[in-house]
Design brief:
It is built from 15 helices and 14 strands. The strands form three sheets. Strands 1, 2, 3, 4, 7, 8, 9, 10, 13 and 14 form a ten-stranded mixed β-sheet that branches.
Length: 505
Amino acid sequence: MKLSRMICLPVTVIAILITTSALADNQRRIDVDSKVVTQHKANINGQRFNYTVATGTQPVWNDKGNPIATLQYTYYTRDKVDDRTTRPLLISFNGGPGSASVWMHLAYTGPRVLKIDDEGYPIQPYGVKDNPYSVLDIADIVYVNPVNTGYSRVLENDKGELPSQAKQKEMFFGVNADIKYLAEWLNTFVSRTERWRSPKFLIGESYGTTRVSGLAHELQNSQWMYINGVVLVSPTDIGIKRDGPIKAANRLPYFAATAWYHKALSADLQAKDLNELLPEVEQFTVNKLIPALTKGGFIDADEKRRIITKMANYAGLSEKFVEQNNLDVPTQFFWKELLRERGQTIGRLDSRYLGIDKRDAGESPDYWAELTSWLHSFTPAINHYLREELNYKTDVKYNLFGNVHPWDRSGNNTGENLRLAMAQNPYLNVMIQSGYFDGATNYFDAKYTLWQLDPSGKMKDRLSFKGYRSGHMMYLRHSDLEKSNNDLRKFIMQALPKKEQPARY
C-alpha cells in the first residue's frame, strides 16, 4: 500500500494494516529450497569417524519446470571417503501412506536413535543417543519425507492458491502418483549430490515397501537409474493378492508367535523355542489349514474337528472361539481375546505391548498400546533432534502423520514391477525383514509374498528373508537393532558386484 493513500487514515487503522502486511510476509511456511550442514562424530561397528549431515528441502518440479511441492530430507555422508563411486547410497522411506521418514531414521539405520529401554519402551527425559550399529560405516543414507509428511508440503501457485484436493490426489496421493514424483525428485537429488555412479539401495518400511518396490522399476525405466538392492521392512502385499483361505490361514503363525511370547500356549508348546515352534506351525498352515479352509462349509466334520483342535492349540485360543469363527479368526478379535481373562489387550503393530480397555468384553481393543508408546518417544525426539542437533529450525509443524487421504490404491502392480526390475537388472537383490510379533503386516504374509514374487524360481538366489523377535519396528528391541543392522550391512555388501563383474546372465 502506498504511503500517499495511508496519510488520511486513522493511526490505529494504519497500525492494523502494517501489522497485517507483516504477518502476510511471515506466514508459517517451509522454504522451498534450503540446506543446513552440520558436522558430527560417530563410533559405529568398532570404527571411529566423522560424518556430515545435510538437512534441507528440495523442490518437486512439474513438467514446466515449476516447483509444485517441496520435500524435506536428511542426508548423512561419512567424511574422508576418497571414492564415492564405490560407496553405497541407501535411500530410506517409511510408509503409512502419510507417515514421515522418522521411524527408521531415529530408531534403525541412523547414527542417532531414540532414548528407550532395551525392549523399546519410552524413557524420560525423551531424546536420542548414539547408535553403534548404524550402517553409516559402509553406506551414506538419505531419509526422504514424501508430500505432507515431516516438513514436506504442497506449494501454492503464483496466485497464492493451493491445488484442489482432487488435483493434489492426482499429483501426489496414490500408489502410482507417489512413485512417479518421488522418482523425479530422486533424479534431482542424485544429480545435486553427484551420486549417479554410486551403488544405490532402496529401503522402505510398511507402505514404504509398496513405494520402494514401485520405485525400483520406475527409476530403472523412467530415470534410467539402476538399483543394486531393495529392502522391504515389514512389507505390505505390494499388489500380490492373498485373499480367501490364504489370508485367513496366514495369520496362524503370527498368532502362535504372539501366544508363545505371552506364555499363553500349552506347556508342551511353551517349552519349545520360537525357532522350533514356528516351522511346525508354518507346515501345518500350508499343508493342513489352507486345504481345510478351501473346503468351506463342506469340510468333513472329523477333519474340521481335528483342524479346530490343532489351530486353537497353536493360537492359544479356545476351541469354541475358533469354531465360532469358522477357522477364520480376525486379527482384531485375537488382539482382544488372547489375554481377555487377564484383563489385557495386545498391540496391533507389535503384540508384545499390553493395553487396558474400559471393558473386558468386546471385539477389539479400545486403542493401540504400541502406537501410543511409540509416540511418547518419537515426537519429542525428532523435534529436538532436527532443531537442536541438526540446527534445522522452522515454525512449520513436523507431521509424523500427514494428510494424504483419500489415497488412490488402484493399479497397484508394484510387486510385479519389482519382479520385472529384478529380471531386467542382474545386479538387483531383495531382502525382507519382519518381526514375528507384528499383527499388521504379519511375517508369514511376508514370506508368502517372497515366495510369490518370482513364480519361476529363477531369481530366488537373489531373494532372502530375515525374522526377528519383535514387531513391526523390529529394531526397537535392542538385540534386534543390532541384528537387523548387521543383516542389512551384510546384504548391502553382498549385493555389490565384484570388481569388473558385468550385469549379465
